[in-house]
């Protein structure tokens, strides 16, 4: 079974796949908190605890980390506890088949890279990927599967925390839709601004990116949402066409297949 490990700034997401190629299936996924002080031993212990009965069934590992301190411990953990297991750590130089049409390809994070790989695998057309994480990443992918760049914006949690800490009369609230856009109390005003404000921000960025992305009339562009905070704004967005919560894990699986099994994943 293939273990995929996505280390983000806020959470570490684990996914376990059985099979390979078009027959591969995501059996389980788990989410744990990212701690930049976590050691390799702690990381292994926590992962094995979550994997439970699957812990000794891992036959391959594909991982990435956007947190340098955790990346170092992740490498140590993989070499110490999985020395004989084939593994791929996605970073500059790892073969993914994704052309990076940006000024400095080494700056592109592994999460954006595998998201591009997965999105093009799913649709084989021009795509925009909106990743709702610590930051909100809006990335453009050409119809040929090329990574073209994108836009960053502060994530939902960061913005809510900043607002609560800088405004004495405001506080963190449950992120659910209020009765109406026009809030009738402080809580509803905050909920309206957060949910509808972020949905409007994403829609505005996506529309502008699509204008630059399409080369002719009638060209189809898929807009894919992923990331742990995506469900908060899915129902309010006018541009998102699909929600793929396991997009990054899928990309990690595809990257593993390209590098370890030598296979070239066929587009669906």
From TrEMBL:
<keyword id="KW-0547">Nucleotide-binding</keyword>
<dbReference type="GO" id="GO:0046872">
    <property type="term" value="F:metal ion binding"/>
</dbReference>
<feature type="active site" description="Proton acceptor">
    <location>
        <position position="111"/>
    </location>
</feature>
<comment type="function">
    <text>Catalyzes the phosphorylation of pantothenate (Pan), the first step in CoA biosynthesis.</text>
</comment>
<dbReference type="GO" id="GO:0005737">
    <property type="term" value="C:cytoplasm"/>
</dbReference>
<feature type="binding site">
    <location>
        <position position="134"/>
    </location>
    <ligand>
        <name>ATP</name>
    </ligand>
</feature>
<keyword id="KW-0808">Transferase</keyword>
<feature type="binding site">
    <location>
        <begin position="109"/>
        <end position="112"/>
    </location>
    <ligand>
        <name>substrate</name>
    </ligand>
</feature>
<feature type="binding site">
    <location>
        <begin position="6"/>
        <end position="13"/>
    </location>
    <ligand>
        <name>ATP</name>
    </ligand>
</feature>
<dbReference type="InterPro" id="IPR043129">
    <property type="entry name" value="ATPase_NBD"/>
</dbReference>
<dbReference type="InterPro" id="IPR004619">
    <property type="entry name" value="Type_III_PanK"/>
</dbReference>
<comment type="pathway">
    <text>Cofactor biosynthesis; coenzyme A biosynthesis; CoA from (R)-pantothenate: step 1/5.</text>
</comment>
<keyword id="KW-0418">Kinase</keyword>
<feature type="binding site">
    <location>
        <position position="186"/>
    </location>
    <ligand>
        <name>substrate</name>
    </ligand>
</feature>
<dbReference type="GO" id="GO:0005524">
    <property type="term" value="F:ATP binding"/>
</dbReference>
<keyword id="KW-0173">Coenzyme A biosynthesis</keyword>
<feature type="binding site">
    <location>
        <position position="131"/>
    </location>
    <ligand>
        <name>K(+)</name>
    </ligand>
</feature>
<dbReference type="GO" id="GO:0004594">
    <property type="term" value="F:pantothenate kinase activity"/>
</dbReference>
<comment type="subunit">
    <text>Homodimer.</text>
</comment>
<keyword id="KW-0067">ATP-binding</keyword>
<keyword id="KW-0630">Potassium</keyword>
<dbReference type="Pfam" id="PF03309">
    <property type="entry name" value="Pan_kinase"/>
</dbReference>
<keyword id="KW-0479">Metal-binding</keyword>
<keyword id="KW-0963">Cytoplasm</keyword>
<dbReference type="GO" id="GO:0015937">
    <property type="term" value="P:coenzyme A biosynthetic process"/>
</dbReference>
<comment type="similarity">
    <text>Belongs to the type III pantothenate kinase family.</text>
</comment>
<protein>
    <recommendedName>
        <fullName>Type III pantothenate kinase</fullName>
        <ecNumber>2.7.1.33</ecNumber>
    </recommendedName>
</protein>
């Amino acid at each position: 079974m293939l273990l995929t490990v996505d280390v983000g700034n806020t959470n570490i997401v684990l996914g376990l796949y059985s099979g390979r190629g078009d027959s591969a299936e995501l059996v389980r996924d788990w989410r744990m908190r990212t701690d930049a002080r976590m050691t390799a031993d702690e990381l292994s212990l926590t992962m094995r605890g979550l994997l439970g009965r699957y812990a000794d069934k891992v036959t391959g590992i594909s991982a990435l980390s956007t947190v340098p301190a955790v990346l170092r411990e992740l490498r140590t953990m993989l070499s110490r506890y999985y020395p004989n297991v084939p593994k791929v750590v996605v970073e500059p130089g790892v073969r993914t088949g994704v052309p990076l049409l940006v000024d400095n390809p080494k700056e592109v994070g592994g999460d954006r890279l595998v998201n591009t790989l997965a999105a093009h695998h799913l649709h084989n057309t021009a795509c925009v990927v909106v990743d709702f994480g610590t930051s909100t990443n809006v990335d453009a992918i050409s119809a040929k599967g090329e990574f073209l760049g994108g836009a960053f914006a502060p994530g939902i949690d960061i913005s809510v925390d900043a607002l609560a800490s800088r405004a004495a009369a405001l506080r963190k609230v449950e992120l659910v839709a209020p009765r109406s856009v026009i809030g009738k109390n402080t809580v509803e005003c905050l909920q309206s601004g957060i949910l509808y404000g972020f949905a409007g921000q994403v829609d505005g960025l996506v529309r502008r990116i699509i204008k630059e992305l399409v080369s002719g009339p009638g060209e189809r562009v898929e807009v894919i949402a992923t990331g742990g905070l995506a469900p908060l704004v899915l129902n309010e967005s006018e541009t998102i066409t699909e929600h793929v919560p396991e997009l990054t894990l899928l990309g990690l699986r595809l990257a593993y297949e390209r590098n370890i099994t030598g296979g070239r994943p066929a587009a669906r």
